[in-house]
Amino acid sequence: MALFLCFLFSLIFSATACNRCVHHAKVAYTQQSAVSNGACGYGSLALGFNGGYLAAAVSSIYKGGAGCGACFQIRCKDPNLCTKRGTKVIVTDLNQNNQTDFVLSSSALMAMANKGKGQDVLKLGLVHVEYKRVPCQYRNQNLALRVEEMSQKPYYLAVKFLYQGGQTEIVGVDVAQVGSPNWSSMRRNYGAVWGTNQVPTGPLQFRMMVTSGYDGKTIWAQHVLPDDWKNGLIYDSGVQITDIAQEGCSPCDVS
């Protein structure tokens, strides 16, 4: 029994430790507009996320768009220039430069600096950092869906997910008429945008398959779009995602 308990505790400790993986990398910076109008498709809406502290992430973090909206705590490794806490950023774009894991908005990079050192950090160009993924938090804000302009009722529906909390990724979306068991699958168009040409009639409900723990779960939003949904409008899903997806041990840096 004692041996079993030791083994069990080691598994729990390992899972906990790996959920707190700290990675070491370099980051660069660019204009805020460049990362807000990025591959995730948030556009000007991204400027209202997290005070505009935004980031473009490499493909291993962007994950074909599944990583859009993910939050990371980043701090530079020079204590003479930067605070110990660093800053939190939200992924809004794809970084195609493999020399850095992230390209931050200039405001996000300067937010890591000690008082009066913001310009000194910018002058570095490439900044050595350590980072880890953290849950996103939106106080008094549910997960929301924006009906995209490409939607054509009743032939096509495209929605963009906004304000996703927790530490998860949406990996599947279904839509159905409210009260109906007949679900239509949606496909990721790009970034945070999902679409389908099998549009149910009437008011619409959604279910999202998200990563959670070491597996996944389904989040059900029962009343989201009204029968007369309109392009360009944002609708409250009535739910928020607060789950945590655990990080496996293998991606953890050892240096």
From TrEMBL:
InterPro entries: Expan_Lol_pI, Expansin/allergen_DPBB_dom, Expansin_CBD, Expansin_CBD_sf, RlpA-like_DPBB, RlpA-like_sf. Keywords: Signal. Coiled coil: none annotated. Residues 37-141 form the Expansin-like EG45 domain. GO terms for cellular component: extracellular region; plant-type cell wall; plasmodesma. SUPFAM superfamilies: Barwin-like endoglucanases (SSF50685), PHL pollen allergen (SSF49590). It comes from the Eukaryota. Belongs to the expansin family. Transmembrane segments: none annotated. This is Expansin-like A3. Residues 1-17 form the signal peptide. Residues 155-237 form the Expansin-like CBD domain. It comes from Actinidia rufa. One of its GO terms (biological process) is anatomical structure morphogenesis. Pfam families: DPBB_1, Expansin_C.
